[in-house]
Amino acid sequence: MLKEAIYHRPKNNYAYAYDESTLHIRLRTKKDDAESVSLIHGDPYDWGDGSWNYDTKQMSKSGSDELFDYWFVEIEPKFRRLRYGFELKNKKDVLVYTEKGFYKSIPNDDTAYFFTFPFINKIDIFEAPSWVKDTVWYQIFPERFANGDTKNDPPGTLEWGSTDPTPTNFFGGDFEGVIQHIDHLVDLGITGIYFTPIFKAYSNHKYDTIDYMEIDPQFGDKETFKRLVEACHKNGIKVMLDAVFNHSGYYFPQFQDVLENQEKSKFKDWFHLKEFPVVTEPKPNYDAFAFVSAMPKLNTENPEVKDYLLEVGRYWVREFNIDGWRLDVANEVDHQFWREFRKAVKEIKQDVYILGEIWHDSMPWLQGDQFDAVMNYPFTTGAVNFFAKDTINAVEFKNIISNVMHSYPNNVNEVAFNLLDSHDTPRILTICNDNKEKLKLLYVFQLSFTGTPCIYYGDEIGMTGGPDPGCRKCMEWNTDAQDRDLFEHIKKLLQLRKENSTFTANDINFIVSDTTTNHIVYTKKDRDHETIFILNNSDKDIEVEVPLYMKGKNVIDLWTGE
Amino acid sequence: MLKEAIYHRPKNNYAYAYDESTLHIRLRTKKDDAESVSLIHGDPYDWGDGSWNYDTKQMSKSGSDELFDYWFVEIEPKFRRLRYGFELKNKKDVLVYTEKGFYKSIPNDDTAYFFTFPFINKIDIFEAPSWVKDTVWYQIFPERFANGDTKNDPPGTLEWGSTDPTPTNFFGGDFEGVIQHIDHLVDLGITGIYFTPIFKAYSNHKYDTIDYMEIDPQFGDKETFKRLVEACHKNGIKVMLDAVFNHSGYYFPQFQDVLENQEKSKFKDWFHLKEFPVVTEPKPNYDAFAFVSAMPKLNTENPEVKDYLLEVGRYWVREFNIDGWRLDVANEVDHQFWREFRKAVKEIKQDVYILGEIWHDSMPWLQGDQFDAVMNYPFTTGAVNFFAKDTINAVEFKNIISNVMHSYPNNVNEVAFNLLDSHDTPRILTICNDNKEKLKLLYVFQLSFTGTPCIYYGDEIGMTGGPDPGCRKCMEWNTDAQDRDLFEHIKKLLQLRKENSTFTANDINFIVSDTTTNHIVYTKKDRDHETIFILNNSDKDIEVEVPLYMKGKNVIDLWTGE
Known about the structure:
Two copies of one chain form a homodimer.
Chain A: E1 15-17, E2 23-30, E3 36-42, E4 47-48, E5 51-52, E6 55-58, E7 60-64, E8 68-75, E9 82-89, E10 94-98, E11 101-103, E12 115-117, E13 137-140, H1 175-180, H2 182-188, E14 192-195, E15 199-201, E16 209-215, H3 222-234, E17 238-243, H4 253-261, H5 303-320, E18 324-327, H6 335-348, E19 353-356, E20 373-374, H7 377-388, H8 394-406, H9 410-413, E21 417-419, H10 428-431, H11 436-447, E22 452-456, H12 484-499, E23 507-513, E24 519-525, E25 530-536
Parallel strand pairs in A: 13-14, 13-22, 14-17, 17-18, 18-19, 19-20, 21-22
Antiparallel strand pairs in A: 1-2, 2-8, 3-6, 3-9, 4-5, 7-8, 9-10, 9-12, 10-11, 15-16, 23-24, 24-25
Helix pairs in contact in A: 5-6, 7-8, 7-11, 11-12
């Protein structure tokens, strides 16, 4: 067996506590190399006659990607602590893999050879709010969803949908508009709204905050927001807000004070200034988001800044009963801040969902002490490239999805935020090159996958648009101009997701990934049921046989109900 | 190249902030596979004409073990954030490795392919106290070091060294004894003392605490301890105490209260009880250290317990100015507790050293938020097996040491607690089968290695002893019975370590690992100097050539001074 391919390291996606009594252990091997793998396991202190008492337990192959097979086993150690290693077999070899390296047989004269999960301490377990895995999100960009109250329109507001969005124009979308259209959301079947920023800011996107404690007046006031949250809750819809804590806006008074008073400003330690005088042109001489001078990076290590932002985190949960925080540019803020943020907001409300915006591999933020989830862009890339763009084939797609799933613990996957597009990308129908059939198939995949999916406002009725600002058009409320067929398709999928627990289950098995026909077949299983999904990602009709083991069983076609 | 062997994942030993401006990046490849590796790197937001602007920087091979080569590069990203990947070359292949997988050439139409170090936030950097890397520790088991005050002897105290130690006998060692013999330690040249537990307890080893806020009366009182710390500090010696927070002792009043009042005890949530009545026999029906009923595991998630133990942590630092805490069974206590512990004690004294007792791979505790170091048993195993036991050859030894060093960031290695033996193992001379020449060689290696070495009391004068309790004999104070030659050998090494910064430097390069002669040659380098170490781990004389590149240079023999 190829020793170089074998990988395991505890306390991340390879070994983690799933709950108070259960450990999940994974092993990586070269693809098609090992034929069986067993976990060698025992209590670290269970000795008798100078040797360690161990058992073995068969592992199952939970997936494969381009290069590797992944093996999985669940175990409930009686005393919540475990020493363990692996015994790998194929026709030619038997190999024992431990923390100290490879052996030909199981060394049990000492436990020091073995990997360790020292103790399952409850407080360290990754535990997202239980409601999240059954939630389907709907992302609203408030300026563009609906104008329900023209009295709060900012000066120069354009007529709804009268022209294409630009980086600077305004159409008057507000909270009243959301309240008035909540039936649309209930009808669709979503159960959570993620609002991009709503706090007082300068731009139409509001990512350049002026005051984190105030609602932007163009959206309404605190009373309107309270009514909005209540209306959502009454309709079984959770509310998540966007926390832009990496940087403030240019008109944030503390930053204005710095520009005005320079070295004498009492806020000079609120930012990462490098020299005086502080200048914004031609280039900012302070740390900023990217190189955007209007978005000065906040010094979240400064206790004053920390106190201020943590209180922001607490305030909107405490006073308005919101259910989640989405954290903008979360990976550039220090881990220490996020640990304190988690503690602060969960002390107010235990089951607040904390979602980090991170586009890359995010294990360091998902250890249980910081976030409940990240925006699952690796999932997005795989799904979009296969279904929407046709740039990868069925096998490459399966490999990517398998790789994503094995990059995180199962309890992390169960609450991953699986989006197809957002205010930061072109709209998904546009990415699909306006091919609605492809989009429908993509929705089948997204909405049958584990995690918590998100639909970007307007996608459900066939809206199109290129990169920002094109993807931020005004919501189409004229039902004649809406694609109701697409709406019904998504609605039906959401209903099926609600009724069939296999949709949200973590256990996915790709039975077929056919590069010739470009179709895939996967099953999803929970304790009691199994659902088989057959997705034909081509424009040709194909015939697919039901897998052998399903023959003769009582099978219901979920799509037709037959 | 063998793709399956190539490994990198950020925010651990493969990519970490070394200081406020410097990142260290490592890559693992199959041994002798890649001939050169470059880091592809750039600012995540540095775009021009639709493509990402990147540079490349050559990496150097920093070591190899049995299966792998390790590549290293240091980089100072201008804006403290980095996107990066790797370009690997050998005669046959060019391969680009990114977070998204392998490519034939560098994809720069998007930064999403690449690995990310999002931002160097100062507060997240692993930063141990600066004094630690120059410290040489001396471990004292207080009951057996010296009896300086017979007035505090416990009942039944035996005459010093009159008999072999047993698990239950007492010889009256105390603080006054340490104070009286401080000259011995100064003469040897050590600069830190690690005391096994000194708090009120039942046993002779004191790991079964009764009161964490009181000195055990057999050692003296708080006034004596204050004098001891002052005497140490006056002689340039740091003081580290042992915190046994995983479990209390049987006679801990809170546990006694549980045994007495059972379900009605107000301390029932201080432990991990599983049922009532709580019983200690035949087996404890509560969580304990190993299966020792007299050591009930403390519930460190209980805020009352946490407050109590954190105050213990603060108290001895604040009131007695101690310099370090060694944490017993540290891996079985929750991470959350240790994060709070670090914050609590460092708020009192910024440069307290926090050392965890962990016997296995410990990356999850060494991320900057918990410990400054762990007891480096993987180092111990490698060094002892080669020099003391002869169970591995020179190449296997080099592989283990290289593997240990690449398991952690360099700033972690620089303060690793490198011990040869302790109160938990046989004495090192006994492990050497009483072969003093082997032991001398082992000391050369230990004391020329990066990290912070520790000498177990009495080892320096040739004491012997098997496993606990054999290794806990009374210190030999009769100079005629002491091995003064060994003492002088170690003293000389400590002097050389003090005078030559290369000894503590992190940069080690094994030039020769000869399995025939069993000799090794390694160099250690810092900015200005290089030292070559030639260790002949055999009983035969050998001739060793000075490496070619050193010929003609001005070479000083550090051992003879010539």
